[in-house]
Amino acid sequence: MTIQSSELHDLSVAQLAAQLRERKVSALETAQHFLARARANAALGTFLDLNEEATLAQAQAADLALAGGTGSALCGVPVAHKDIFVTKDFITTAGSKMLAGYRSPFDATVVSNLAAQGMVTLGKLNCDEFAMGSANENSAYGNVQNPWDTTRTPGGSSGGSAAAVAARLTPAATGTDTGGSIRQPASFCGITGIKPTYGRASRYGMVAYASSLDQAGPMARSAQDCALLLSSMCGPDPDRDSTSLEVPAEDFTRSLTVSLSGLRIGVPAEFFGEGLAPDVRAAVDAALKEYEKLGATLVPISLPRTELSIPVYYIIAPAEASSNLSRFDGVKFGHRAEQYVDLIDMYKKTRAQGFGDEVKRRIMIGAYVLSHGYYDAYYLQAQKIRRMIADDFQQAFKQCDVIAGPVAPTVAWKLGEKDDPLASYLADIFTLPGSLAGLPGMSIPVGFGTGQMPVGMQLIGNYLQEAKLLNVAHRFQQATDWHAVKPQGN
Ligand code: GLN
After folding, report:
1. Can you list the positions of beta strands (E) in 187-232?
2. d(CA 282, CA 466)
3. In b/e form, how buried is each residue of 31-53, taking b as 16+ CB within 10 angstroms?
4. What is the average pLDDT value for the chain, to the nearest integer?
5. What letter would DSSP give residue 286?
6. Of 12, 96, 157, 222, which is the active-site residue?
């Protein structure tokens, strides 16, 4: 062995895959190494379920494939999944008491796509209950700590994924993004994440939150690693997800190194207003300067309905959630109240016991905006403005190739600091517009702000422009090393 086991967790997905292919390290020892790290760092709160036997069996299968020369590009590389993806070998809770101990009879398409590449599943990662939240504090299984400062949130809802990657407990993780849940935790934990165009990755087996917005994506330390995973995650799944796009899977690593000379980066005025914290602004401004050095030109643009994305999203997402979550009725799966007098009472007690406060709040808001008499005033209005927000982006993309700005108005806040739900909704302002439009977006680390906390920059592309986004991110990461800095003690 030429490689020290103690260094394994510092390797990127690309490096680790190469070491595995060259048989410098086995998939089995790699899996054992990461499982030991997961156990040793349990206090971070990232993993909700491990199944050592299943993980090691997958690793052994990967070793066989590698030894036989049949292993594909990611063979033997560990990955951990947000607990919103259903899995046969691991419990799936979606961060909810409602699904405590639930085991799915099948794997989500994203999970099986990565397994088909020989990736080894380490376990399931904590998240906000049904992916509703921005701080991972809505999980029924406790909060996750940010590895950069354990008194702060890792962001949400894919907080477990971001924290696990940042703390080197896994080289890569999956996340889902409905209104920012890949980009914002990636930003808060100093890692890289991409949410592809709505419909690129199958939603089959993703516990549904808001179906017209939910989208899966990879979270890793670099754009190159995200490109490797995304290439395998995406692809049409028409029989199982009617909204999956009929676009063939693509190798997103191919165009990573294309020069940025002549690239037009749109800078939306609305993303740099009063609400943006000066430390975040400074880091994003510096990153934009770096892009100019790389040959890009900055183009001032406007996304005039940015502010409206908050009320629009917080009408549409709860509306869809109220409908999606009606399946948790104590009959088909999950929790059922032990004592009740009749069927209606069973529904009521089951749902009162199984759902947390934020989920109940969203179900109530959703039911309200869909109800007769309020539908036209809220839901329909929101749908109309959603269309206008998407149109605004198309106007902007006439002037630029990608859009850049902050991911969130501040760095990660202290755990428990935003106990008012509205305050946390407002912090989603920069990720919601792209989500409502169904556009691909990513977050890359661009520096540090208050409390030495990471700052992320958001890149938004036009539909199906994931390859362009990853290229733009990768060139930046070749020229800078913000993505390579790691939290102390990891
Ligand atoms: N913070 C947003 C919400 O609570 C986004 C969550 C997400 O993208 N899953 O809905």
Report:
1. 192-195, 215-220
2. 26
3. bbbbbebbeebeebbbbbbbbee
4. 97
5. H
6. 157
* pLDDT at residue 1 tops 70: no
Run of H or E residues at 354 = helix 343-354
Q: What is the pLDDT of residues 282-335, one digit of tens each?
A: 999 999 999 999 999 999 999 999 999 999 999 999 999 999 999 999 998 899
* Torsion angles phi and psi, residue 59, rounded to 5: -65, -40
Sheet holding 47-50, edge to edge: 47-50, 120-125, 78-82, 172-177, 215-220, 192-195, 441-449, 453-461, 402-406, 264-268, 297-301
| Residue-level length of the chain | 490
What percent of the chain is helix, strand and coil (3-state, nearest 5)? 40, 15, 45
Which ligand 1 atom minimizes the distance to the CA of 428?
A: 1
- The alpha-helical segments, DSSP class H, found in 204-277 are 223-233
In percent, how much of the chain has pLDDT > 90?
Answer: 97
Ligand 1 within 6 A of 129 CB? no
- Mean pLDDT of the region 464-487: 97
> 191 and 453 in contact (C-beta within 8 Å)?
no
**φ/ψ of residue 483, rounded to 5:** -75, -15
Residue 181 a catalytic site member: yes
Whether residue 205 contacts residue 246, with contact meaning beta carbons closer than 8 Å, is answered with no
Task: For a ligand 1 pocket test, name from 127, 134, 176, 312 the mutation site with the most ligand atoms within 8 angstroms of its C-beta.
Answer: 134
| Long-range CB contact pairs, 282-285, < 8 A, 24+ | 282/447, 282/449, 283/446, 283/447, 283/448, 283/449, 283/455, 283/457, 284/404, 284/405, 284/406, 284/446, 284/455, 284/457
Residues 385-438: tens digit of each pLDDT: 999 999 999 999 999 999 999 999 999 999 999 989 999 999 999 999 999 999
195 catalytically annotated: no
Q: Which domains does the chain have, with CATH numbers?
A: 5-233 (3.90.1300.10)
Provide the token pair at 18.
């190469």
